[in-house]
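Thread: Newbie trying to understand structure tokens

Hi all, I'm a second-year student working on a class project, and my supervisor (Dr. K.) asked me to get a predicted structure for one chain before our next meeting. I've only ever worked with sequences, so writing a 3D structure as a token string is new to me. If someone could post the tokens and maybe explain what I'm looking at, I'd be very grateful. Here's the chain:
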Amino acid sequence: MSIRNIFDNLTPSDPMPTHSLKQRLAQAKIQLDSLELDGGSKDLSALSAARVEFALAARALADELIARGHHSERSDS
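---
Reply by user tm_fold:
Sure, no problem. This is what the structure looks like when written as tokens:
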């Protein structure tokens, strides 16, 4: 998977259902874990792309949850 493929699949103007975002994050985590656990893998490009996709998926889900009001105010106590 290349970084170009990741960005080609993104459509920021189209809102995604939360379920799809959760699925995307789970798939990104599975892919990242698989590449990180494969000690023999020399494909640093794939590992970098997986890290980028995981970060983008996490951010997209967080943005959606915030937009829906599923966040709590941070309190300094």
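A couple of things are worth pointing out once you decode it. The chain has a mean pLDDT of 80. The two ends are 45 Å apart (CA to CA). Feel free to ask follow-ups in this thread.
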